[in-house]
Amino acid sequence: MRPDKNTKNQKSPNFLTFIAYLQIIGIILVVLGHSFHEYPNSNYGMDLLIYRMMHSFRMPLFMFVSGFLMIYTSLLKKQKSWKKFTQNKLKRLILPFFVLSTVTFIPRSIMSAYADDPIEFSIESLTKSLLFPENMVIPYFWFLQSSFTLLTFTFLILTFTKKLEWRNIHIYVGLIILFALLPRLPFEFTSFFSLNKTINLGVYFILGCTYCQYNQIIDNIINWNSWWTFIICSIIWSVMFFISENTPLIQICSIAGIMMCISLSKILIRYNVKILDHLIGANYIIFLLSWYFNIASQQLLHHFSSFPWWVYTILSLISGIYIPYLFYKYMLAHKNSRIRLFCCKYLGQTFK
Fold first, then answer.
1. Whole-angstrom Cα distance, residue 230 to residue 131?
2. What is the per-residue pLDDT for 117?
3. CB-based contacts of 256: which residues, under 8 Å, 6+ apart?
4. What is the pLDDT of residue 160?
5. pLDDT of residue 113
6. Whole-angstrom Cα distance, residue 228 to residue 40?
7. Is there a contact between 254 and 57 (Cβ–Cβ < 8 Å)?
8. Sequence-separated (6 or more) residues with CB below 8 Å from residue 201
């Protein structure tokens, strides 16, 4: 792998700020998407137009950011061995998945009478919940498995081809073509360890890698911090959604949605709008903990009250974001607390 001209580290303080904004936009959309559960006659909110439109790009956005950060933190700044890299990702992603899923399994199975998706209390059920996304205790934790697979697979490819002196751009193009073609093969991939979801999201992960390494070239072509760029990307995203929903062309819609978010992030930086700044650094702990407050403020509360559906949605959105955020702030303020040490050791969370 020959070094490319665009592998220099970005020194601008805004370079990672826009990525932090993308993470925050993504986690807000995730929590919001999980907050429509009590909307009547809509398959727990998943049939709502706003949910389907958000769903077209929110997880692709997360994968894009994951690929970007892999290149920035592991290849452009520090060269690591694949073994060390994998060990780090096991601790960061798979250990929290295992700990939280296992700890949550018992109370969730006991409280199945209050849940719309009951879980059987058995070893078989626990095993399936750790291996198959459709059986998971915390449904959206499949992302941790998919992210781990893409991170370790791509890092392995890049470190192996380094010896062959291949240019990264050739590897990225090859991987984008691979992940674009795999979902179109005449058979379905297994859901074991979320492989089917990994295959479907691989394109966005590699696009994130590509943008990180060649951002200077791309930014010279696309004026991200222009309102016109944001408007054009928004129009393409919304039009493509209605044209391509439930078709292979949905990838174009998803990419336009990602570009829309990149443009919005850079516009916020250009105009010094700091509305998202207070959440910087808290996105991962919000991802890990928001489900508990989504459930408490919707499914559990619904059994003891009869508010309009939108009340549960607002409570779920606010509590899903800001209770984990307050927990994050508490960890920052109490450096020697046992809870902080537990989070750092078992939840892959660091508090700076």
1. 39
2. 74
3. 57, 233, 236, 237, 240
4. 87
5. 66
6. 38
7. yes
8. 59, 60, 63, 146, 150
DSSP secondary structure letters along 181-222 = HGGGSSSPPP-GGGHHHHHHHHHHHHHHHHHHHTHHHHHHH-
Cβ atoms 59, 140 nearer than 8 A: no
User: 266 with 18: CB under 8 angstroms?
Assistant: yes
Please, which residues have CB within 8 angstroms of residue 244's CB and are 6 or more apart in sequence? Answer: 250, 252, 253
By C-alpha distance, which of 57, 59, 33 is closest to 47?
A: 33
Which candidate, 141, 187, 155, places its Cα nearest to that of 78?
A: 155
pLDDT attached to residue 13: 56
Return the closest-CA partner of residue 80 out of 152, 16, 145. Answer: 152
* Euclidean distance between the first and the last CA atom of the chain, given in angstroms as a whole number: 34
Q: How far is CA 225 from the centre of its chain?
A: 23
Helix (H) or strand (E) holding 45, with range, is none
pLDDT score recorded for residue 21: 96
Q: What pLDDT score was predicted for residue 7? A: 45
pLDDT at 2: 45
Is the pTM value of this prediction over 0.90?
A: yes
Amino acid at 100: L
Strand, coil or helix: 276: coil
Non-local (6+) Cβ contacts of 216 within 8 A are: 6
Instruction: Give me the average pLDDT of each 10-residue run along the chain (352 residues).
Output: 46 75 96 93 86 95 96 74 91 95 90 73 92 93 97 93 85 95 92 96 97 94 96 97 92 97 96 95 95 92 90 97 96 89 86 70
How far is it, in rounded angstroms, from Cα 246 to Cα 166? 37
DSSP string covering 280-295 = TT-HHHHHHHHHHHHH
Distances (CA, A) of 61 to 87, 102, 205: 25, 28, 9
Instruction: Read off the amino acid at residue 231.
Output: I
Integer angstrom CA distances of residue 40 from 20, 37, 140, 308: 34, 8, 22, 10
pLDDT number for residue 351: 75
